[in-house]
Queue: 4 jobs
Job 1
Amino acid sequence: MSTSRELIQQLLSTCQRCRRLRRKCDTLLPDCRLCRKAGVECYHFDHALQQSLPRAYVHSLLARLEHLEAVKRTIDGSSDQQDVPRPVLPNTPTSDHPFPHPPPSQPSQVDNRERVPQSVQYDPYLKRDQTDTFDKHFIIPSAAGRSRFFGASSVFTISVELFRHAITTGLLPEGSLDLPISRYNDKEECADTLAIRFNHQAQAESVRELCRFYFVTSNVLYGFVDEHLAANDVEVYLDLRGNPLLNPQDLRGVEAHQYFRVSMMCAISCSTQARHRHRRLVEGMAYYKNALDCVEEVTSEVTPASLQALLLLSIFCLFQPRKGDIWKLLDYACRLSVELGYHTEQQVEVETEAQKRLRRSTFWGLYAIERIVGQLFGRGSDLPEPIITTEYPRSLSAIDSMDQASVQPISIAHHYRLVYLRSEIFRDLYMPADPPQFEFDWYRDRFSTLHLWRQEHLVSDDDLAGPGTISCDVGYNSTICFLFQPLLLVAIRTTTMNRNDSSTDFKAVPQDNYWSACALIRTYEKVIRAPEKSILGAYPMTFLSAHYIYLAGITLMAHALLAIDSRVPILKPMLQLGETPEIGSLDLTNFYEISNSCLILLSFCAERWTGMEGMLYSFKKLSDKIIPALLRRQP
């Protein structure tokens, strides 16, 4: 890698400051010597993108390359060891699809199902000793030479460590851990079949109602569709649908975008409402299939409208992950946003204030989706922070009144700031090829930053709750779990490897992620229990929500395992700590109630999305053994 890095650095052009001053430049990263001495950022001109980029961007790409090469070496090394067992994932597609099931549009579905085994064997993988990294590589048996990567920030990595600990300590029996995998989802197959025969007459009021619903739910979270312009889109869409000779594949230009946009907004709204009314699943698939008729036309040009189309497809995949490749969609959207200059405020064309607001909210909506999806799976980003200069959509000072509708866009803009802070933590904590060992002060400083963010816009009034405020609640508590997950991983692995050694100096772990996991489960419990017509009942529940719920549950189980082990000290809550870490105790009184709530939420997720049964089964398998063991240890 060092030779490759040197060759790449030799290709760096003279930075713009040295060229302007006619000084001799060098190829140091992230800044040349003269720029670093002057205390300014070092920029060079990228001829491919036709814009100036900081050298820090090149530095981040090289760091990412080092990480990927380290991953490749790990995979190559494991493939050379013939005696090392590999985990088996059944019928996993060759694309980086979030779930190990083939999309229903594949031919010969019956044949595919017959080849699906009844269970997944994880025991061999749990016995494999990887002391240098927590990253996991699951070999895909259906595609030779392919594997699925989960980084240390993924909840699946800590799941593996928990199972290995439970087996090693005797909580779970030796032998096969058979995780049942459903052969197919009857509900989804039924929806696909009915959607093909569904003859939607595009009733005007129904379409308008679905579009209104979209703007108070999903568009609050991501904000890349202009509500004022969409009113005209709806009328054009209704006129087109009223034409009995309409063939969507013949649509071109603006009409194609309008037809696609309204169809996708209706499909997303139906997917949001499907958890209350199952028939909406069929309607949503019908709208989606109508939109696909002109998808090539609306994504073939380098325009803001094409970026919007890619984002609509990405949002739909968050609800229906089997209907597209979320990784490719986000990759295309990120590339297109950079090409359009959405990542920077250096706009050449004159923009109105409305266009500026839409551009900023579009970019930060994409940024939030791309970052969160990548971090949940432990994967890097296509939008490095050094090149981003776009302002946040709105500031806290922009709010005129504290009513429910006004608080939501302010809250989601505040959430974008959290995603940026979380990305900085991810870059420092999870991206290096060699996992860093940060001291207590580093974690305390990051926690203080997150807590300060939380206090800046803490909405405690339930009457003001909505998509934006719920996203802030979920984002904050999941980020606390995300921040302290490496410490839990180290503690679980250390106790596993030294199970009979009481003299080992175990590093203390914080308890704040336990309480954040509890708060995360309570938040989703309120959302799931909310009536359909309420604001919380309309909150968009995507497969990301299932990952957050599972993350909270696994965090609870990790703390319970450490409590049963009783060798790892627990710190006092961060807000009670001084300059030095102090040992406290963790009150597990509410553990049983919260774990039961988590089980109910995971049952909902398993019913809602194919592929979530593994999460439910894994959590139930652990809780069935951990809860009795924890009760036996309590006085």
Job 2
Amino acid sequence: MGGYLCPGCAKATIVRLELLPRLYEGLAAFLHPGAPVRVGRVSAAVDAPMPVAELPLTMRGPGGMVGVTEDWLSALHQDRRMSEPARLGTHEQRLARAVAGLLANMPWIVMAWPTAGAFAEEIREIANSARSVISPTDPTEVGKRIGACPAIDASGVICGAILRHRPGETVIVCPWCNCSFPPATWPGLKAFIDHDERNETRHEKEAAWPSAS
């Protein structure tokens, strides 16, 4: 199946877009440097000389989440020959409008937009930056990356969400489709994922190599 984003990347981008308004709201509590910051499971006050924390302020400012999403929506409108989207209202309203516009166009982004990869990468970066402030992750809780979920739904579409195995877990469960993989399936699962990723890498290299014609 063609397109510019794999199913897993497309689903992850949708989830991140949907989270942006809540992340934007959550950053407000971290504007002041003395606000408690979680490190793993421990909360601590962070001292800083600035009266306002720089990263939350930047992300909540005009060039942060609002500017990034509005700029991508504007670029999308230009490429689709649509009228320029409005940039009116509060920052919260503008972010919500831009996110809604991008979500509404996700099918086209996935299948037809050559800049879909760069778009998905920047959305990932701003979402992860916000989450690193609001809820820093304990590395031991992230788990080991296994690969893309190979489960196929009733319509024949591969799930593609990223599977992870965390310490102490006896079953790997897909966070998107909830398909479970008990230990007996792990060797075959890893072999299938490794084979699929090797093929995907080979296809990407072939697509990037200039034609001799």
Job 3
Amino acid sequence: MHRMIRNMVNRLTNMNSEAGVSRLPAAKPLSRLRRAGSALVGTSLAVAAAIFATGLLSGEVSAQGYPSAGVSLANYDLAASGFVTPAGVPPIGTPGMMGMSGSPVMPVGYNAYGCDSGNCDALPMQACMDRMVCGTCGGGGGCSCNSFLGGGGVLGKLRNGGSACLFCRGAGCTACKELPFGYAGSCLASAVSLLRPYEEAGICNQRWYDVSLEALFLDRQIKSAGSSVITQRGSGPSGTPVLSLSDDGLDELEAGVRASVAFIWGVGGNVELTYMGGNEWKEGASAQADVIGTNLEGNLYSFLSDFGTIPGAGGFDDTDRSTTQSIEARSRFHSAEFNYRRRTMFPYCRFQSSWLVGLRFMRYDDGLRYATQGQTQTTIGPTTITQNRFFNADADTENRLFGPQAGFDFWWNVVPGISVGLGAKGAWVQNDVDRAVQISANSLATQNAFDGDQRGTILADLELKGIYRLSHSLTLRGSYYVLAVDDIAFGSMDFQVNGATQSIVPGNLAYDSLTLQGFTVGAEYMW
């Protein structure tokens, strides 16, 4: 480079020297002055060009897209590459403008929706975009604040492998305030995009999850559970019922859990392990006597004496003429499944279904406690004696059902990321029943009795369900769920007391149909 400059200067000097010794007639002073000025301008331009070229080859270039210092540009056709944005020109977010015409290559700094980060592509709305400039909201703020809960916000970051943030170091929802109401308007508008599910998997995505966890809310219904009267005020047919089995309050929703894991087992197949249950119902009711006699006896009579008519007037000393009688019912539910499921996709991907076969275990425990309390005061001569009278009966029944099952489900892929479906299963199971009864009374020592039974029965469940996909890994799900069992043994007060041996003999087990129904809400996770 220095040699180039030296040659230019020498050439200019030689030209001046030749002009001084020329044999031609001497030029006019004005012509000589014009030639000297032209030579001076030419020399200045040559020196400036040399300096500029030196800077290009040895220094850093500030325009976008240029290589860093020390990289030769000899083989670069910078003007024709299409990858250079003039310095100082902001990114423009409209396809087909500046660099797009006639070329499939989009220049650096240009994006389909105006953000270098790329997070704004295909968003349904530009909720808090600050006009056309992405950077005014901070670090691609249009992309970050675009959708506080949607594609560019918390969910967008999760979908793109980032971490969720609310304000995002100044690039979040509240960074832009172009909409009415400032921060609030921006966030409210962008929150609408939360309604849009994760769609990248497409409508042909097959149903799958690795882990599913749901809260399970069920109520308990017994087919023939009616208003069987336990206690009434007054004896005989003229008495008023005040306590019945329907007062136990076990028809309320109680919380449990449903958890499932799935493992791939061949093409289109998987093995599922599912636990459902943990629901516990425990309620009770009581009645108080409204008349207390001078001998402290009440007017409550029990079903055990046919309300004071057996064995004679006044009933039993333990259970009748009570001041307080109460019942307490309790139930517990558990279920476990091991299934092989095979999935099928219908043509055009709008529908898909699966069938399954497996084993089902279910346990249902039912208990009933009945208690009475009373007093009798007698006076013998100068002595007054008060006798406490009581009766307690507690029956616990365990049902353990096990057998093979089969089922299916059917899904409608409404749009990518949203599906609704129907599922059903049925099982033929054997029910092993164990019962334990314990009785204590003021006229009877504590007695225990145990018995059991075994019989076959059927169970079936039905589920209406839906899923909403938030990201590649996370999906929300919910369902309406019903489980019905034909024959379940329940806790009952059916027993007899052998007065001669002071022992109890349990009566026949009471069987009835059980229905558990409610809803689930939870999430699925896929690795």
Job 4
Amino acid sequence: MADHEHDHASASGGARPPADLRSRLRGSGYRLTPQRELILAAVERLGHATPDEVLAEVRRHSTAVNVSTVYRTLEVLEELGLVRHAHLSDRAPTYHSVTDHEHFHLVCRNCERVTSVDADVAADLVGRLAAEQQFVVDIGHLTVFGHCQDCSANREDIP
């Protein structure tokens, strides 16, 4: 999904303070390495990104990072609750920073545009699933596939 667009509003407006990141890592027995800092910064800059997209962004700043480092670091950062992943296609998972508001994703099957939607939009569905199915939804992993407004307007075969 390297060529897709993102509609991604960041509630934080910027990168996580290094001191906060450092304390979270140290509290879990990890160090804040330059590679980890670069990888988290890349995720925050890109909005939604596959590990390969993160690697490409990191390599703009350092060639000392390889793909296995990116995968391992993303796992660590997710364990620590600093990033989350979602499956926005049948390809690699897509990671995003948790500094953003809680949201789910809309993915256009035609242009692959990814749109972040505030979790409150799904509140009625989440409430009904809890009441009727006794099911607690992890809204950050919810992905809804369909066709965006632009693609729907340009195609007659999409209702």
